[in-house]
Amino acid sequence: MQRTLSVLLLAAGLAVPAAEAQQERASVPTKYTWNLADLYTNEAAWRQAKEKFVASLPTIDASKGKLGTSSVELLKGLNTLYGLQKELYRLYGYASLVADQDTRVASAQAMRQEMAQVATNFSARAAFVEPEILRMDKATTEGWLKAEPGLAIYRHFIEDVLRR
Questions:
Q1: pLDDT at 19 exceeding the cut of 80
Q2: pTM, two decimal places
Q3: 8-15: long-range contacts at Cβ-Cβ below 8 A with a sequence spacing of 24 or more?
């Protein structure tokens, strides 16, 4: 039995073609690579955008304690939050794709780690949003969603928070 299993494993190993040698990124034709310039022209541009983003994180604090005061404040707060989140995803996406190009490059892995820390800071600053929405009166919130057209894009998010 043991010998039969060994023979089967050996035969299975021989049946699998040898893996092709891994190509270096520089030897891969450009048409088969990501065009990260669509996100940022280079790492320096990414770093500049990241620093600008980090500097803008305190703008989230302006809405703290105000989301439930009016539809205008709710809209302003959610616009700020989602605007920053969109830029965060763009920054993080670039860093992740650069890191994935060659996992042996420590500086690229560091970029992804930097963005993980920035994302944590963003989440910590924005942690007040859902609790404030949960404290809002449901009838008032529904009225604001009907009266303020700008809130329509956030309807699903608000209703999902209230549902949970």
A1: no
A2: 0.79
A3: none
